[in-house]
Amino acid sequence: MKTLLLLVSVAFIAVTARAQDARLVCLKINDLNTKILNSIISRPEAARQFKALIIQLSEYLPINDDIIWTFPLQGYTASAIGGTNGNGYSDKGYNFLDGNKHAAHPAHDIFIKDKNQDGLDDRTMKAVNVLAVADGIVIACNDKWLPESSLRGGKFIWIYHRSQHSISYYAHNSSILVTPGDIVKAGQKIAEVGRTGLNAYKKRSPTHLHFSAFALAGGLPVPYNPYQQLLKSVKK
Ligand SMILES: [Zn+2]
């Protein structure tokens, strides 16, 4: 019995230590992401650090079976995705290392019903929940944004998905509920839809979630079109 207890507590300590190590790596990725956004790190150095950190992080995490996504907006379906048949997505010329100065729109804008632009769903008069598409760990986020800020993503979240070795990105939120190192489950509420970000704040922009997916090719985030995954995703 004593041996069993000892084994259980050793395992518990090991799991706790791993979670703490994973959080430290996530905080480092968050710092690096801020440097990339502010263009205060050279591209080769940023690439070197990102690759090393994501490998380190993947070693701390178990692989889960979460192939089918949850749609990232609660109460909405793929019909809320802007454009026609997902043509709002365009990644030509995009480079993660360009930070806030990046080109193209490697994303889908998913619009909520908000005619008066108060950030609330016109049908429910409530904020719309942003959900994690799959199990993962928060590797970067920004919870501070002011209208005079030039940051395009506003209040954003990056999540690393170990099983798919991919990253999802959620921008323009009004508030975010996670911090780097948080483990999230598929369908978990991580934020509320908002209008934060240089362009999303402007009157001409209807209220939406800007959603991207990245594969880790050569250790760096490379965007891919997640339209089919969004079509097949589970509505919550
Ligand atoms: Zn967008």
From TrEMBL:
Q: Which Pfam families match?
A: Peptidase_M23
**What InterPro entries does this protein map onto?**
Cell_wall_metabolism_enzyme (IPR050570), Dup_hybrid_motif (IPR011055), M23ase_b-sheet_dom (IPR016047)
Keyword terms, alphabetized: Signal
Residues annotated as signal peptide:
1-19
Does the entry feature the keyword Signal, yes or no? yes
Q: Which residues form the M23ase beta-sheet core domain?
A: 117-213
In the record, what terms sit under GO molecular function? metalloendopeptidase activity
Q: Does the keyword Signal apply?
A: yes
**PANTHER family, alphabetized:** MUREIN HYDROLASE ACTIVATOR ENVC (PTHR21666:SF270), PEPTIDASE-RELATED (PTHR21666)
Q: What is this protein called?
A: M23 family metallopeptidase
Per the UniProt record, the source organism is Mucilaginibacter glaciei
